[in-house]
Amino acid sequence: MVTKEDLSQAILEVKDLQKELQRDLSKRFKETDEKFKETDRFIRNLSINIDGISRTQGEITEDYFYNILKKDKSIAGLKFDNIERNLYQYARHNLKGEYDIILFNGDSVLIVEIKNKIRNKDIENLKNKQIANFRELFPNYKDFKIYGAVAGFTIKDELVKKANNEGFFVLQKKGDMMVEKHKNIKSY
After folding, report:
1. Are β-strands 108-117 and 177-181 bridged in parallel, bridged antiparallel, or unpaired?
2. How does pLDDT run across 71-102, given as a tens digit for each residue?
3. What's the Rg (C-alpha) of the chain?
4. Taking a C-beta distance cutoff of 8 angstroms, is the pair 117, 155 a contact?
5. Is residue 185 within 8 Å of 169, Cβ to Cβ?
6. How many Cα atoms within 13 Å fall on the side-chain side of residue 7?
7. How much is the pLDDT for 36?
8. What are phi and psi of 142, to 5 degrees?
């Protein structure tokens, strides 16, 4: 038969076991939290490294096309006098623009959007944002013909076709050379 004393003793032992279990669980939760924090730090650092690699690749791509265009300053018979790189311009109403490369002559401007890999959104951005906003951002060139070009190390054939249908030049790296692909070029 279980006595009241045995029952009290069993209850105390259970309470002690609960306290020990609670301490053990608290310790394990702290260890788990530390592991999560460590994992978060690792992921943040990895993200920073990946972003750095991506930026470096973008800079390599920009350097490549800038150096080629700086040397020749012509595309498909259009000759330009000046070349500018990484232009940032702000206008009223929070309008702003970033331009990778711009070539100028007495009556024309060529805006070159450069990406390591050209995507559909890059072509759309060139047409709907960069070219569309250029005259307001740079009023000195409001009467100039504006041409567009996308330049990249990688571009799918269907995007070459799309860019050409928009009237843009396509500049692509092939070996040590730059290849121009253009049909139906138009000024904006």
Report:
1. unpaired
2. 989 888 889 999 999 988 887 778 889 999 99
3. 31
4. yes
5. yes
6. 4
7. 72
8. -65, -25
Token pair, residue 157, equals: 């054939």
89 is written with which tokens?
């311009």
Alpha carbon distance 168, 160 (integer Å): 9
* Dist CA 166 CA 111 (whole Å): 14
Instruction: Give residues with Cβ within 8 angstroms of 120, minimum separation 6.
Output: 159, 162
Which pTM was predicted?
A: 0.70
pLDDT in tens, 108-153: 999 999 999 999 999 999 999 999 999 999 999 999 999 999 999 9
CATH classification at residue 139: 3.40.1350.10
In eight-state DSSP terms, residue 30 is H
What is the tally of structural domains in the chain? 1
The residue segments making up the domain with residue 150 are 1-188
Please name which of 115, 173, 95 lies closest in space to residue 124, comparing C-alpha atoms: 115
DSSP string, 131-185: IHHHHHH-GGGTTSEEEEEEEEEE--HHHHHHHHHTT-EEEEEETTEEEEE-SS-
